[in-house]
Structures are given as structure tokens and as C-alpha cells.
Design a protein that fits this description.
83 residues; alpha+beta; three-stranded antiparallel beta sheet; elongated
């Protein structure tokens, strides 16, 4: 079953995030999953042949050459999809 989550986040201060931030997004997702279902989090983390989770790029910030700028109090979204 395909599952999709959209996280709405508010920046607590001005920040720059690397455009290539998939590793960070995946870590956030796994940390959230760890609190909900530790066994599933371990299975997703340990998957070798495929990654059952896809995390879309942060949406809502200003895009620059290598970074995304998010101003304080700005709302941004992360979309997470998985099997």
C-alpha cells in the first residue's frame, strides 16, 4: 500500500539548507518512524536492495545555486512517500 505524508514545518530562524538534502530528510523520517514503530524503522533503515521510502525536496523556500533559503517563520513542506 502506497502511503504519503506531507509535513508542514515552520522555520524557527533564518537558515540555508543544501539543495541536495535527501540524506537529512530521510534521517528525519526515520527518526519520526522510530518513535511510532521502532521495528518498522529498523526494517526500513536496513533495506539493502531497495529503499521503500522516497522523500521529495523541501518545498516553499527560496532556491539558490546550491542551497535553499528558509526565512524565520516561513512554512515549508516535505513530502514523504513509501510502500
Amino acid at each position: 500500500m502506497l502511503t504519503r505524508y506531507v509535513l508542514t514545518l515552520r522555520a524557527c530562524g533564518d537558515c540555508y539548507i543544501p539543495k541536495s538534502h535527501g540524506v537529512f530528510a530521510r534521517a528525519v523520517f526515520l527518526n519520526l518512524l522510530l518513535h511510532i514503530d521502532p521495528i518498522l524503522a529498523q526494517k526500513v533503515h536496513a533495506a539493502k536492495n531497495y529503499k521503500p521510502v522516497a522523500v521529495a525536496q523541501l518545498s516553499g523556500g527560496g532556491k539558490y545555486e546550491d542551497e535553499i533559503f528558509v526565512a524565520e517563520n516561513r512554512l515549508v513542506t516535505w513530502e514523504i512517500s513509501g510502500l
